[in-house]
Design brief:
It is built from four helices and three strands, in the order ααββααβ. The termini are far apart. The chain has a three-stranded mixed β-sheet with strand order 1-2-3. It has a single domain, classed as Alpha-Beta Plaits (2-Layer Sandwich), CATH 3.30.70. α2 crosses α4. Helix content is 54%, strand content 17%. By secondary structure, it is an alpha+beta fold.
């Protein structure tokens, strides 16, 4: 059973401590990356996005349009920078478009 703290904590601090204690940070990063991709790219790209996976700081994005894949490949570094800024930390170091 977990040790009980008698000190008062804010909800944000309690949730942060819970995430760190249970090593849930990677799972939350995966969900946050998916949500950020969808909000940042908009409907035009999301209609052609079939799968998004984050493995070892590499973001794999499956696209159903080869033309869109080629267009996005020209701006990989900018996409990585914008996603990391939106997430508030460096989660993605490489982007692979499939």
């Amino acid at each position: 059973m977990a040790k009980r703290n008698n000190e008062n904590l804010s909800i944000a601090d309690a949730l942060k401590e819970f995430v760190e204690t249970n090593k849930l940070e990677h799972g939350l990063d995966v969900v946050n990356v998916r949500d950020t991709w969808k909000s940042m790219m908009g409907n035009g790209v999301n209609n052609y996005t079939t799968d998004i996976q984050l493995k070892n700081n590499t973001l794999y994005v499956q696209l159903s349009s080869s033309v869109l894949r080629e267009e996005l490949s020209y701006g990989k570094e900018k996409i990585i920078t914008l996603l990391n800024e939106s997430l508030g930390k460096k989660v993605i170091s490489k982007l692979v478009l499939r």
